[in-house]
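Incident review: delayed structure delivery

Summary: a single-chain prediction request sat in the queue longer than the usual turnaround. Root cause was a stuck worker, restarted by the on-call engineer. No data loss occurred. The affected request and its eventual output are reproduced below so the record is complete for anyone auditing the incident later.

Affected input:
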Amino acid sequence: MTTNTSETNKRIVLDAYASLKAGDVSGYLGAMSDDVTITYYGNHIFTGTYNGLADIMENYVPALLEVLDGPIRITVLNAIAEGDQVFVEALGESRTRDGRDYNNQYGIVLKLKDGKIKTIREYMDTELTKAIFG
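Output delivered after worker restart:
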């Protein structure tokens, strides 16, 4: 029986975001390869590329959680897969420690290899991100 790579990769990504939405951050991170790269585009505090889970945990997550009152709950609105790539349109919901809503919209391109997320390129409302995080 032949496995449909696109559908398998799409399922891995959808399961990862479902874990994050449920508050299971380790389940989300477990879907990534140890050497995953995440690139955020725009002009805000997170702009740039994080190389590997260690870099993400040391340099991205603390800045995020310094402002937010917990992880961002991601709702996938649409997912399209072709080969080793998955595109996700999503809505993120969170609150800041001082009570403001941080509800952003995302366009995310993910590339998978050997059943793990290898690269993430994320586009978001950068004005909202700057307003909340600086």
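Verification: The radius of gyration is 15 Å.
Action items: add queue-age alerting; document worker restart procedure.
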